[in-house]
C-alpha cells in the first residue's frame, strides 16, 4: 500500500525536480523543514490564506488542539490513507494525513480540491522549522 501512495505522490509532483526549481528562485523560496529530521517540506512562498487566514487553530474530536498553517504545495509530505470529509476543518475539502517523507512524523493534513478552491496542505506549525 505504501508503495502505491509513493508512486502517486511522485507522479503528481517530483520532489527533486521541485526542490531544484525552488532553489533557483530568489528570495521567496526559504526552506520550511520538518523540525524533527530537517527534511525540506515546503518553502515560505507556498504559504497561502485559506478561509481568510494562513494560520488556524483547530481541535480534533479527541480534544487535541493543533495550530496549523496553510501551504499550496508541500512535496516533502507524503499522504497516507483515503481522503475523507468526516470531521474536516475546511468544508468541502476532504483530508488525508500528511507525513514527513523522510522520518514519518505526522506533519499535518493534505486537503483535496473542493468547497473554497484548490487543493492545499494544512501543516502543524509547531512541527516545522523555517530557515531564516
Ligand atoms: Zn521528518
Q: What does it look like?
A:
With 132 residues, this protein is α+β, with helices and mostly antiparallel strands. The chain has one domain (31-130): Beta Complex (Metal Binding Protein, Guanine Nucleotide Exchange Factor, Chain A). It has 2 helices and 9 strands. It has helices at residues 2-12, 15-23; strands at 31-34, 40-43, 55-59, 65-71, 77-84, 95-100, 106-111, 120-124, 128-130. A 6-stranded antiparallel sheet has the order 3-4-8-7-6-5. A hairpin with a 5-residue loop joins strand 6 and strand 7 (106-111). The longest helix is centred in the N-terminal third of the chain and has 11 residues, at 2-12. It is globular and about 35 Å long. The N and C termini lie far apart (37 Å).
What labels describe this entry?
disordered N terminus, 6-stranded antiparallel beta sheet, 15% helix, alpha+beta, Metal Binding Protein, Guanine Nucleotide Exchange Factor, Chain A, 9 strands, binds zinc ion, 132 residues, globular, 36% strand, 3-stranded antiparallel beta sheet
Amino acid at each position: 500500500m505504501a508503495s502505491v501512495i509513493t508512486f502517486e505522490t511522485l507522479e503528481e509532483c517530483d520532489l527533486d525536480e521541485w526542490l531544484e526549481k525552488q532553489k533557483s528562485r530568489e528570495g521567496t523560496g526559504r526552506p520550511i523543514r520538518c523540525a524533527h529530521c530537517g527534511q525540506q517540506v515546503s518553502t515560505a512562498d507556498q504559504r497561502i490564506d485559506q478561509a481568510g487566514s494562513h494560520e488556524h487553530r483547530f481541535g480534533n474530536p479527541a480534544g487535541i488542539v493543533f495550530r496549523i498553517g496553510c501551504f499550496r504545495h508541500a512535496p516533502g509530505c507524503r499522504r497516507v490513507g483515503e481522503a475523507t470529509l468526516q470531521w474536516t476543518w475546511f468544508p468541502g475539502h476532504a483530508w488525508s494525513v500528511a507525513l514527513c517523507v523522510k522520518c514519518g512524523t505526522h506533519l499535518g493534513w493534505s486537503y483535496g480540491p473542493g468547497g473554497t478552491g484548490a487543493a492545499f496542505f494544512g501543516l502543524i506549525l509547531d512541527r516545522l522549522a523555517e530557515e531564516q
